[in-house]
Structure formats: C-alpha cells, structure tokens
C-alpha cells in the first residue's frame, strides 16, 4: 500500500493518478493539508494529513498497512523566499518525520524529491554534473541540499531505502503548480489558449532545465521500482529532458497559435532563476537505472495544447 503526502500539489496530483492506474485505486492513499481536485477525491481514499505530523502519518500507516511513502509536500522556491521559516519547517520536518518512520521500520521505502535548486550561482551552468559545487542561494535550495544529506545519512546509518531525484522545472497541463519559479512555463500555455497573450515574469533569454510531467512521473516510479542494486546515489539523481528559454517556448506556441503575443516583465523570481543551471548532465541516472526521457519542447507543446483545447474550449 502506498501513501502519497502532498497529493494535492502539482506533482503529487499526477503521481497519485499514475500510481492508482498501476497499483489500483485502493492501494494508493492520497493525502494533503487540503482536499484535492474532483478527480482525485473521486478516484480513491483521501485523508487530510499535515506532512510534518509524524503521529498522524504513523496512524495512517498502521490503519492502511502502508509500505511505501512518496513525500511530495513542500513549499517551492518563490513562496519560500517570501516565507523562509515556514518553508524550512515544512520541507525539513516532513522529511525527518518520514525518514524516522522508515528507520523505525514502519515503512519499507521512501521517495523524496530533490531539485536542480540544490545548485547555486557558482555551480557550472552547462551540463551541470551529478557531483559538483552546491551552494544554493534560495531557501528552497538550502532545504533541498540539507534534505539530500539527511537522506544519505539515514541510508548509510540506518539502511533506510530512500530514493530521490533532482527534478528540473516540471510542466503540466492537468494540475497547476504553486509558488515555483519555473511555473511561467505552465502559465504560458493556459494564457495562450485563454487570452492569446502572456506577460512572462522571467527575461526572454532565461534558459532553464525543464521536463514534461509525464516524464517526471515515469522517472519517479521507474526509480522506485528499480532493483536496489542499481541505486548508487542516495542524495538525489540529476534528471533532465530539455532546456529552453521563454522566447523558445513562445515561438513553439506560435507554431500552433500564430497570433500569440508574449511580453517580459522580470520580477523577484529572475534572481532565483539566474542562480540555477541552464542544463543538467543526468548520465548517472541513464546508466544506473536506464532513465530515458520521451518528450521534447515540440512534442510537449503539441500534447499540452491539444489537451488544453479539449479542456478549456
Ligand atoms: C520551483 N518548480 O520552481 C520548482 C522547481 C527547479 C524548479 O524546484 O521552485
């Protein structure tokens, strides 16, 4: 039985749906601090759980005989800059609670998402390697670096089977993100369909590593299903698919919506984006457990616009 903490979030929502398809609706307990969307609430068991509340998580584990926990509850980069203490508390205390439950043998396996936000301004920006300088300049990035080392510590010291991926920016049409810096690449599609224009909060040449949600969800499940002997990294595997700028995604959209207009109004999130790599080397994930992305900018754009046109029009 799987428990997803943070199931109402951008990744948690899609991950829960995919896990339910694979394992059966009643084998995946969804939970979050607030209810999920209609589809989530109708497709299987849901519980209101504060991901930092170890006792409640333990009670749920016992009640449903949970063996795996996916911890997707977090405060993302932009919101974390506005509420540093809250972000640190949620991002760290939820991880430590779940790692302790695994150390105490209440669960067998943990998934915890890291991020390319672990890298900072003095990290090599092109094809950033798996092992390199990590001096994040954001609260979110600090919490992710700390989290990576806690995961590795619990694995080395207590044998906890915790697995982690450094997600790039993740783009979805089905669930809206909240509080991220890469969210412009989600908002742009909704605006292109609904308004035919978009004011981008990052500068036009801001290149960032990005990935379609379907690839991110598949990578997560693939990592959790791979034989333990293939896992050589217990901090967080670099994971990549593509890199693009706002200008490039806008011109891809114009191939489908020729009259689409974009303008640029960088805000405080520009500084966050500028501290991150432009592209990521994920060769270790590809060699250790056969990771392979499927979507690039043009196939992702086609898939999103087709789905949104069905949904919104
Ligand atoms: C954010 N989507 O923007 C997240 C992610 C690398 C970006 O960590 O904060």
Automatic annotation (TrEMBL):
Segments forming domain NAD-dependent epimerase/dehydratase: 2-231
Domain of life according to the entry: Bacteria
One biological process term in Gene Ontology: L-threonine catabolic process
Regions annotated as coiled coil: none
Pfam families in the cross-refs: Epimerase
UniProt GO MF annotations: L-threonine 3-dehydrogenase activity
InterPro entries tied to this protein: Epimerase_deHydtase, NAD(P)-bd_dom_sf, NAD(P)_epim/dehydratase
PANTHER family: L-THREONINE 3-DEHYDROGENASE (PTHR42687), L-THREONINE 3-DEHYDROGENASE, MITOCHONDRIAL (PTHR42687:SF1)
Family from the record: Belongs to the NAD(P)-dependent epimerase/dehydratase family.
Protein name: NAD-dependent epimerase
Organism: Polaribacter butkevichii
């Amino acid at each position: 039985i799987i428990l997803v903490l943070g199931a109402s979030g951008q990744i948690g929502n899609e991950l829960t749906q995919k896990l339910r398809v694979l394992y059966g609706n009643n084998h995946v307990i969804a939970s979050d601090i607030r209810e999920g969307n209609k589809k989530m609430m109708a497709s299987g068991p849901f519980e209101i759980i504060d991901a930092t509340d170890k006792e409640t998580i333990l009670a749920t584990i016992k009640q449903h005989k949970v063996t795996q926990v996916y911890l997707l509850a977090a405060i993302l980069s932009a919101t974390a800059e506005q509420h540093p203490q809250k972000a640190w508390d949620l991002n760290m205390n939820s991880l430590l609670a779940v790692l302790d439950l695994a150390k105490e043998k209440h669960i067998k396996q943990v998934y915890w998402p890291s991020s390319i936000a672990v890298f900072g301004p003095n990290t090599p920006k092109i094809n950033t390697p798996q092992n390199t300088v990590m001096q994040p300049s954001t609260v979110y990035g600090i919490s992710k670096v700390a989290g990576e080392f806690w995961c590795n510590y619990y694995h080395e010291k207590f044998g906890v089977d915790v697995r982690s991926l450094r997600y790039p920016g993740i783009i979805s049409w089905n669930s809206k993100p909240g509080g991220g810096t890469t969210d412009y690449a989600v908002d742009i599609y909704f605006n292109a369909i609904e308004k035919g224009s978009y004011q981008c909060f990052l500068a036009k040449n801001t290149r960032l590593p990005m990935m379609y949600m379907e690839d991110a969800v598949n990578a997560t499940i693939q990592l959790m299903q791979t034989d333990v002997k293939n896992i050589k990294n217990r901090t967080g595997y670099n994971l990549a698919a593509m890199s693009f700028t706002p200008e490039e995604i806008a011109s891809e959209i114009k191939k489908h919506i020729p009259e689409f207009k974009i303008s640029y109004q960088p805000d405080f999130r520009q500084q966050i984006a500028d501290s991150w790599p432009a592209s990521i080397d994920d060769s270790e994930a590809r060699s250790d457990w056969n990771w392979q992305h499927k979507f690039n900018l043009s196939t992702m754009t086609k898939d999103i616009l087709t789905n949104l046109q069905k949904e919104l029009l």
